[in-house]
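Example record

The entry below shows one chain as it appears in the dataset: sequence first, then C-alpha cells.
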Amino acid sequence: LLQLKSARSCFADAGYIDVADTPTESAATAKPLVGGKDAYTVTPAISQHAQPLMRHHMPTDGAITFKKYMASTAGEWRLPDDWMDSPKQSMQGFEDTYRNIIDYIIRITFRIWDDRDVEYIRATYGSDSNTFDDFGLQHGDDKVVQDTYASMRAFSDIECVAQEVIWAGNDEIGFHTSHRVLIRGTNNGPSKYGPATGNKVEFIVIANCVAKNNEIFLEHVLYNAPALLEQLGFDIEEQVQNLMNDCPKGWPLPKALWDEMKNAARPAQPISVAEPVAGFDIDRMVRSAFGEMWGAKRSPERLSAYYTNDVSVEGASNRKWTGLEKHCEFFDMLTQAFPDMCVQVDEVYWANEGAETHVALRWSATATHAAAGLYGAPTHSKVRLWGLNQYDVVGERIAREWMLFNEFDLLLQLKSARSLFNN
C-alpha cells in the first residue's frame, strides 16, 4: 500500500492523475516526478489574456491570404518582392511597417532567422509571454532568444521556408495565427542533442500564436523533434534517456499548467453550437471529421463524408501517406496503444480563399498506455498528448492535412514511467 501510495503521489505531483486525497498544488509549487530545474517559478494566468474567437472573427473575403501574399515570389516562399503592395488591415499597436497579420508573421520570422537579427525577438515576444512546446512551458522572451541562438550555432545555414499562415481575429481581440514552416539546414555545430553530425535536415514545424500590440504573448509550437533526431542520425531512445538524466526546464507540466495550456483561447462552446448557421458549417464539419478519426468506429467508408479518398497527409516524425485507408491505419495503431484515449478539440479557426478554406485546429488528450504497439510494451501509465492540425478543405471535404503532436514529450512520459517502476 505504501508503494502504491508513493507511485500515486509522484504522478499526481507531475499532474498525470488526480488523487482525491492529495491537496491541489498551485502551478508555482507543483513538483514534477522527474523534471527541469526551477521549472515553475513564474506561471501567470494565460487564458485571461487570449480571448476565444467567434464566427465574425473569421476572414471570409479572401483578401488577405498566404498564397496571395506570396504570389509574386519566384521559387520558394521566403519573402515576397512586393510585400509593400500587400493589402492593408487595421494593425493598431503594431509597428507601422507591417501591412497585415500575414506580413507581420512572415517578416518577423525572416528578420529573426534569415537576417539573423535574433535580438528582434524582444520586440515581438513579451517578457511575460508563454510558449508551450515539446518540452513544456517556456516563459518570457529570454528563453526564446537563447533557444534561437542555440539553433543557429547548431545549424549555421538554417532556413525557414513558409508553407502556410492561417489567421483569424483582429487587433482588438488579438490575431490568432497558425504558421507552418519547413525548417532545413546542416548540423555543423553542437546541439543539445550532441556534437555536430554534418547531416542535412528538413522537417515541418507548426506554431500557433496569439499576437497583440506587436507582441506574441501566447504560442503553442511543435518542433517535430523525432524527425530532427532521426535525420541527425541519433538513436531516439538514447536521446530520450539522455534528456531524462537532465530534463529540460519546464518538463513535465504540472496539472494546473496543463489545464491552462489546453484551455487558453478555448470557447465555452464550439462556434457551430454557440452560433449555428444553416447549411454547411466548416466548424461543425472539421470537428465531426476529427471526432470520427479518433472514434472507435473509424473506417474509410465513414470518413469519406469528410475527406477526399486521395487525401494527402503529413504527420509527426515526417510520416507521410496518401488515401483514407492509410490515414485510418495510423490512427488504428495509435489508439491500439492507448485504447481509452479521451480527446478534446481546444480551438478551431479558419480563413476562406475562394473554393478552399484553410483551417487550424488545436487539440489535447489524455490516455492510458495499456497495450503494446507503436511505443513498445505497455507501461499502464497515464499520458498526455496535444497537437496542432491544419486542413485544406476543398468544397466540403478535407483534401490535405498536416498533423503534429507532442510525440517526443510522449516518449519522455513513457520513459519516465518505465524508470519509476524499474527503480
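Notes for this example: The chain is about 30% helix and 30% strand. The mean pLDDT is 89.
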